[in-house]
């Protein structure tokens, strides 16, 4: 019986934020070892340095993903079980496709790819090849987000009537106003259509609102009307939407990268016929729950949770778990599902495949396309 | 020189919430005495009891507003200077008109009336007759709302980019879901088109979002797209909007009377090129102010205010002023303006007429009509 | 049957903070009219101007309290029912005593007087003469403080184990550190032993902690050990205490006038065998209530209150009541009790005399003396 | 040059909370591998299972610490560099001493040991043998606690005047009141003097207040007066203290395990002549900073930090780092210092030895002894 998996990584040199979060998150539960990688194509030195830092043998530090997929697929022993893709958005599709075709399982950063057509192809191929494909919408990994999903599913707030989601950041504030730094390096790739696709803000953070709220509500967005603000740039930095979920609930979504005073302000509030649930990413271990007509209760992780959220709990209440644990929760489920698969066990429990999948990735791409389509047509309503 | 004004009141028997708030607010600064009234037409006993409670002489407790306007207008001495109208929405127009025509100044609850046509007529008449006409959008009376308006005007947050307003209550929660009480007395008049007009929630609280945000931003809403939720009732209980201000800023407005956990949750957040300002009615003495790139500052009434907001300050910082003081601030300005007028002084200072007027009332009616028009047309965009 | 009382005021010219709060608080319910006063002895012009501003007849604007007490006591008609004493602390005793001896009821600012001996005399005299004597410990007037008292009394948190009270302000911050302004006018009388007595901070705000917590807990402080910080000044600006209540509960009290970031930060937290209650003056309409083992509930005024707290409720939940309403609550009870007395009705209901009395004032003086005695003896324990 | 260390662990089977936190924290930066251990003496099966789970070779899964220290010390290759001690408090002293004597570096859970005499011996021995000895007072590892220490050191709040520390939990709430479960397994060892020593609450969490506040303030506690509440149990469950720091600042400390509504509520507030700093463990990425006379600023990790706190930053602002990262920060510094030592580099940078040491452990033991001594003597003042 296998107990440890092997993985490779594409993108994510030593100093890159998200690539490092992936490695740390995997290390927390120790279910997978990094054994191969292509951490940078443009910067061979950084590629090698990163690989060496992690003790990867020289022959498995690859110059590009094509070399890697061929070499790994050709191995008869110690082949990687899954690949983690942390490259810029414009490369996800071709890399993911190459690995699927070799039957290697996938963890890919979001957004999944640039077009719904590409995303549909990846969904189809993953299904055909039996590949487990996780798209890291991190925030559904938080313990209290799972608790919220459970509570909504169990009817704690009755029928969902209204959903308010927002995701506010301030890191591109210098891009607006009189003192715009058009040459700021920081923002280059996010604001460049070539690497970011048709959106910046909506694709980077707006999709998290959709994914996290759909996860909690248990129903995706069906229609929307969106206003995107570009403030003179080629891509959006701010957006507001009216949304309608498949279950009939209405609501608003707002995302911004120019909202002073907000750093990673994702919040989801769900109002139902019997109560309400409110969650904020910057204080993730808490959940405000109001049964209709009663005082609001501050639910605390571990102390006031049950079911799956309680089972997957890591440390006692009052000790903040933080973002890395949310990531680790996703990886723990993903790797356990892979191990089950490797060991011939079924993944038939209710939460066995509780990680964001390529299907969520497809929905995310459709959401992005819908926002742009609506905005281009005078912010009229579009179906997703 | 006159120092004390005389006023009459229509509506607002002893147990009515808002009528009492008006009287208490006026009493705080002692600039006007209640000397006449018609507190109820349908309930003559409550009418007389209220009048007597306030020591009004028998001859000036009137059976209906028509009797009152005639009698008061005919008086040569001690005639009322202004009338306070706290009756159901459907009567505001005719009562206000009758008093304007007699040259009696007016304070009227919002919404001003039912149609923009009526509102335009009231605006025109008030102007022609030189009548001061205040519409009590209470929340612009809060000290820190004035501080916010000042700061935006002085450029503290640069050019306004985005505005998020919301007003959430829960008091009609029992009107949705399985346990709907269709016979609940509490909600009768608000949810009855005859007394409430074409909206319930949007007219009752949604208009406060528009008025308060326009006051802070210094620019009104120009266009919007609205989704109204009626949940099987004739009028709306929940609404979401995309808005565009005249100054070009976009944003969202949300109002609800079925949002569990929220009691009178008006909040306005304004994001600009140089910073942001955020205010919540349930904690009115505080203002969150974030200069771009710096930590958020918690501004406290009196301690961190200046200009007009500091001058009109009533009690030291840290001692909550509360709703009644917001009301009293409006009345203090209104009565001072009337006294100036009575004493032949000009009201030409920047803040001399700093109270919500019949023009604001007109804008409120247009906002309500715009919301319904948009919603009826599939939530498309409409100009106000 | 009398429905309106007459009162006189000593101290509290037009611009004085607390004198004005008293007048506004009384005006809110309209149960008493200001008909006499001596607003300043040292400044005859301000005295007359204040009297005239409130329409007091010339003959009842007195030059000093002695003239006032004689003249008012001598009146056979329209004599004042009660006097409001808002003068500096060092004058409370003699003024209060003079009015008691004439059978005139009293509202006096805290601290009641300078020594327990004086306070005991006032208690005895008030009892002998049947005088109602209110000492305005404002904070027990807040609706949610009454709700807290009720809940503790009803056993909502079980047996009280621990009490943490604090009252932090920053307004004397400039008195410490390198940039001390020894000539600051603002702080003169508070920091002058002649006008303030043996303490500044403990007497001004520390006593509020004792009074408010004793009111909520239903048991006074019995013993304490105190550390007073004078930072080179004759009187204290900061203090910390270990306390033991009569019911056996332990806890800490802290007060400060040099705590940057705190304006009027009175908070009381009570922990019991079955739960906890926490209240903060800067957000007075809320109460945190935690039943043991369950999530914390945010109780909101009016929405989640019962009994007396619900009955005395003034405006709907979510609309902040503020400090003036807390004051008005005290005055409403006090004036109703006086009216009952005047009209021959018993004050035998549980909450009929629910205002802070001269006995509370005595306890406050003992608390102050205890703190100074403990501090002087090396912060050892003293009995109150 | 060595880049990876080897460590062994004593205590901390698979299901134990704190042992697992240590392993996860070490894994995050990957600077040390677990190669030996004695995870349980009483439960040989759990011991072996834990060792196997982490892939430790059979010969290095020891039956008791004595066997381990002998065997490891005897190894000529791959000997462990340091040992992590996570056993009950009563065993720390003898285990730590045994490893020091063999020159093996140490990470030990707090409290360090039972008596100051023992602690002094460990300090002396560690110094003599050149052993790096970390005592895991976790909370000084938080990024914003380091930022607070920096700011105080740089004079941001001037001279420190007052310190308020508290640490409130509720997990032993069932031990007080009518429904005491004297046989509750959960609380057995903490409340048993044999395993916990002379205190429960003070030793478990009270010492964290002392350590964290001393770290921020840059000065330890010198004298105190303490009241310990045992509520009928042999050891304390609640305590309050008056404290005096060496720098002359006064303040209060409170700790409790029976404070309903608080889970791991450590908070430190420091007031100085030029401002104040306030930090709460349950929201560790934020710091309230108030420069005297100005509004409070909400400092956010990464966004508003500098110096060392910025350098050691792990993920972008707004993404909560959580407890495990605080632990990992301690381990990163400790292992880097060990690697420097191993590689012949000096640890002479300002922050090179920025981890809690055996000297802090000694101070913690003195604090515990002082609290008990004071309480036993009627809560009088004692020197530490």
Characterise this structure.
4 copies of one chain form a homotetramer. Chain A is α/β, with parallel strands linked by helices and 384 residues long. Chain A has helices spanning 17-29, 44-53, 65-74, 92-101, 116-129, 143-153, 193-196, 201-217, 307-311, 322-342, 358-376, and strands at residues 5-10, 32-38, 82-85, 105-108, 133-135, 160-168, 221-229, 238-245, 250-256, 265-272, 275-280, 286-291, 296-300, 382-383. Chain A has a 9-stranded mixed β-sheet. The first copy, chain A, has a 5-stranded parallel β-sheet with strand order 2-1-3-4-5, with helices on both faces. In chain A, α4 packs parallel to α5 and α6 (143-153) packs across α8 (201-217). The model of chain A is unreliable at 182-186 (pLDDT under 50). At the A-B interface, β6, β7, β8, β9 and β11 of A face β6, β7, β8, β9 and β11 of B. β13 of chain B pairs antiparallel with β13 (296-300) of chain D, so a sheet runs across the interface.
Provide the fold topology.
Four copies of one chain form a homotetramer.
Chain A: E1 5-10, H1 17-29, E2 32-38, H2 44-53, H3 65-74, E3 82-85, H4 92-101, E4 105-108, H5 116-129, E5 133-135, H6 143-153, E6 160-168, H7 193-196, H8 201-217, E7 221-229, E8 238-245, E9 250-256, E10 265-272, E11 275-280, E12 286-291, E13 296-300, H9 307-311, H10 322-342, H11 358-376, E14 382-383
Parallel strand pairs in A: 1-2, 1-3, 3-4, 4-5, 6-9
Antiparallel strand pairs in A: 6-10, 7-8, 7-14, 8-9, 10-11, 11-12, 12-13
């Amino acid at each position: 019986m296998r107990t440890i998996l092997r993985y490779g990584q594409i993108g994510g040199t030593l100093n890159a934020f998200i690539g490092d979060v992936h490695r740390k998150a995997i290390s927390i539960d120790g279910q997978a070892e990094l054994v191969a990688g292509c951490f940078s194509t443009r910067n061979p030195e950084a590629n090698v340095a990163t690989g060496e830092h992690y003790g990867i043998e020289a022959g498995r530090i690859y110059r590009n993903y094509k070399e890697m997929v061929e070499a790994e697929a050709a191995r008869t022993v110690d082949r990687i079980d899954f690949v983690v893709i942390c490259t810029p958005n414009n490369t996800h599709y071709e890399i993911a496709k190459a690995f699927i075709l070799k039957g290697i399982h996938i963890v890919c950063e979001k957004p999944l790819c640039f077009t719904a057509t590409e995303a549909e192809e990846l969904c189809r191929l993953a299904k055909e090849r039996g590949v487990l494909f996780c798209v890291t919408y991190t925030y559904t990994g938080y313990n209290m987000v799972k608790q919220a999903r459970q509570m909504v599913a169990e009817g704690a707030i009755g029928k969902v009537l209204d959903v308010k989601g927002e995701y506010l950041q301030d890191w591109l504030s210098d891009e607006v106003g009189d003192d715009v730094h058009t040459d700021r390096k920081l923002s280059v790739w996010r604001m460049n259509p070539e690497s970011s696709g048709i959106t910046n803000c909506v694709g980077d953070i707006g999709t998290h609102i959709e994914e996290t709220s759909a996860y909690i509500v248990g129903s995706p967005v069906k229609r929307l009307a969106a206003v995107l603000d570009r403030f003179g740039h080629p891509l959006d930095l701010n957006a507001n939407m009216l949304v309608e979920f498949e279950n009939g609930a209405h609501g608003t979504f707002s995302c911004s990268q120019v909202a002073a005073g907000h750093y990673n302000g994702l919040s989801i509030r769900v109002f139902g016929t019997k109560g309400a649930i409110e969650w904020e990413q910057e204080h993730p271990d808490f959940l405000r729950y109001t049964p209709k007509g009663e005082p609001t209760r501050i639910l605390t992780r571990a102390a006031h949770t049950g079911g799956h959220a309680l089972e997957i709990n890591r440390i006692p209440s009052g000790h903040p778990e933080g973002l890395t644990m949310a990531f680790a929760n996703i990886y723990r489920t993903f790797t356990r599902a892979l191990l089950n698969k490797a060991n011939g066990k079924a993944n038939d429990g209710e939460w066995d495949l509780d990680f964001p999948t390529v299907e969520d990735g497809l929905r995310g791409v459709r959401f992005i396309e819908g926002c742009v389509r609506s905005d281009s047509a005078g912010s009229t309503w579009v179906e997703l």
